[in-house]
Design a protein that fits this description.
The protein is mostly helical. The protein contains six helices and no strands. Helix 3 packs antiparallel against helix 4 and helix 3 packs across helix 5.
């Protein structure tokens, strides 16, 4: 893990994200913050994580997302050994869908 992740100036970004009220505001913020390539990479990684969480195999994920095997492997490592961020999001989304 990057030792700079918990510096105060980095926390400001996450607080800014948490301050957004709706999907459109969030999309607009990320469009301003990131390049098209950066957004595409993050969206692709998230889609890979969704596919992996559903138990899909690498070849099917590659076909569905266009992600490289290296990206799929990297996301899989994050799901298995990461900080639990994907799991927290998946849990919240599942809870919201069940309401």
């Amino acid at each position: 893990m990057n030792k700079n992740i918990n510096k105060p100036h980095n926390e400001e970004l996450y607080k800014a994200i948490l301050s957004l009220d709706n999907l459109q505001d969030c999309m607009n913020f990320f469009k301003d913050l990131c390049t098209v390539s950066e957004l595409h990479a993050m969206e692709q990684r998230y889609q890979v994580a969704v596919c992996l969480s559903k138990g899909m195999i690498y070849n099917d994920i590659l076909s569905e997302t266009g992600a490289s095997s290296a990206t799929i492997s990297r996301v899989n490592r994050s799901l298995q050994y990461g900080a639990g961020g994907y799991d927290a999001v998946f849990s919240k989304i599942k809870g919201a869908e069940e309401k």
